[in-house]
Design brief:
This protein has four helices and no strands. It has 121 residues and is mainly α. The protein has a domain of 79 residues. Helix 2 crosses helix 3, helix 2 packs across helix 4 and helix 3 crosses helix 4. The relative contact order is 0.12.
Length: 121
Amino acid sequence: MAEPTTGAVVVAATAGVGLATVMPHMDGNALFGAIIGAALIAMNQRDLKAWQRCAGLLVSVGAGYVSAPEIVAQTIITQTGPGGFVGAILVVPVALKALELIEKTDFSSFVPAWFKKGKGE
């Protein structure tokens, strides 16, 4: 009779081969870098609940994985692993700061007075 660990290894290998055939074009380096970067961000967010940190982790992983090829193309980084790491660390916090800035900005002050309806001379 086989040991339980042998069965677990066989199941894990079969699942890995199955996932590899379903997603043959997935960049493992970019995904790994994005997961590591997202984990770093999620561990540093102590003021959030567990489910909010998990959601942030998933968003950071997605952003890091998607932005990795562009980071490699536009910077001195030559591999997608570090590109995914940088993307996961930078994309979501920068986007959140941009959203915060947009919420605080009064866009009506940019419109000239003569253009406003009912205002001006």
